[in-house]
Amino acid sequence: MRNRKYLIGALVGVLGVFAFSSTASAVPTSQTLQTTLAPAKQSKKTFGGVSLHNIIGTNFDNFATSQSPKTTTFTIDPNVKFVNGNVPPCALSSVQGKFTAQAQAACPQSITGGGTVQVNGGAVGGTVTFFSGGPTTIYVQTDIGPGATSLTIIGTIQGKQLVFSNIPNTPGLVLSNFDTTFNKRKTGKSSYYVMARCKKKKWSTSESTNFYSGETLSASSSMKCKQKK
């Protein structure tokens, strides 16, 4: 009887270790990226206005104990560029800590696009609004749930890279999918917020994400474009 008690205790201890290990070892397992520019028919030499639709998804082996992305860096195709032009910059204080309606009311002329966000693979949904914070700055205003919480992610254009940072670590509550679009918006007499040319009949985009848990994942996307005669 005594041996049986020790055996049961040992089994419980082993199961506990396995359970703890499986919970603690939650990691991001894969990422996907889909980037679409429209219209796809553009000049070979001259940049024209386009919209940029981007979907980035992240999968985890266990959302309950997952850790957030720390930074995400997009490498933009050399034949795609952002031109802020005459879009008025929005002050960070006008959107940070506010919900969508308040932020949009504060800087309506600075909005350059938006979309949706999912938490934990779609368990909770939210909205995204892009604001221009200046020639090289993008504010990603994110609302999670109906009036639950808001987050302002800061994006910085550095040459051909777009770096998103200041994402807080919220274990068990991660932003797992963004489906967003930068609008085809005029920013001058002949300029648009996003511009592209079809020099090589293809546009390619890649991204790399560093997580608070130490992992790094990446993904890429490409699409064909058609040259204007």
Describe it:
By secondary structure, the chain is mostly beta strands. It has one domain. The chain has helices at residues 2-24, 92-95, 100-106; strands at 28-38, 41-42, 48-49, 51-60, 69-75, 80-82, 111-119, 124-134, 137-144, 149-158, 161-165, 175-182, 194-196, 202-211, 216-224, 226-227. The strands form 3 sheets. An 11-stranded antiparallel beta sheet has the order 1-4-12-7-8-9-10-11-5-14-15, with helices on one face. It has a 3-stranded antiparallel beta sheet with strand order 3-13-6, with no helix packed on it. A hairpin with a 4-residue loop joins strand 7 (111-119) and strand 8. The longest helix has 23 residues, at 2-24. 29% of the residues are buried.
Question: Taking all residues together, what is the mean pLDDT?
Answer: 88
Secondary-structure content class: mainly beta
Instruction: Name the strands of the widest sheet in spatial order.
Output: 1-4-12-7-8-9-10-11-5-14-15
Q: How many discrete domains?
A: 1
Outline: globular
Biggest sheet details: 11 strands, antiparallel
Count the helices. How many? 3
Unreliable sequence segments: 1-23
Radius of gyration, whole Å? 22 Å
H/E element string?
A: HEEEEEEHHEEEEEEEEEE
Number of strand elements: 16
Distance between the termini: 89 Å
Binned, the helix content reads 10-25%
Strand content: over 45%
